[in-house]
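Q: Can someone sanity-check these two? First one:
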Amino acid sequence: MKSSPKYISFLKENRAKKQAVEIYDQRIKDSSDVYERFSADFYTRDCPVCGSDHHYDEEKFNGQYGVVTCYKCKSMFVNPTPSMEALDYYYNNSECNKLLGNLYNQRGAKFGYFAVSA
């Protein structure tokens, strides 16, 4: 029987501040790109936690994405929400996820383990 690989604690492998800032800045740019490309297809929804249709508006994320709080359970969520097409585009094409994938590959290679598709 094959044994499982040794556990890698990435808590000891923090990214440098420069990497963190670069990924954060790119994430903001990518979120704006998704909004510009797909916001016409965003749709309103009820609370994903309790199903209530009563909520109040919060400050928009990045001045674009609507954020609301449910009156019933106090959950906060994006509303209107991106379509599946927008989410697919973000998770499979965004530069911030490529940067993060490269970081994970570097960490994994350091320990002789996995590679993430970026």
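And here is the second, same format, sequence then tokens:
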Amino acid sequence: MYDLLYSSKDYEAEIDYIESFFSAKNINITRFSEPKASKIKNVVDVNFSIFYKRKDEEKYSFLSELHSMRHFNIEEISQISSECGFELIKCEEMISRDEPNESH
């Protein structure tokens, strides 16, 4: 899913779309995420195109959503934390728990 990508590399990457699948007891869902990052605004606009089908039906339904999300790099998070009386103790990638870096 798009929101798990490390933001500092997203500005340089040329990602057309990310496809994800979900299947539950009664429904199949395919989601296409198309990110467009703005380094100047520290924002990424993600257009979600979602196709879903109930398993007992033949046709797919479609919906789309646009999510504008603000990027915060580690330096910004550290500064904001400090200004609010907090201390940044650790940063890690969500799934792997590796230390974040621009090469991942």
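A (reply): Looked at the second one. The CA atoms of residues 86 and 98 lie 23 Å apart. Residues 1-6 have pLDDT under 50 and may be disordered.
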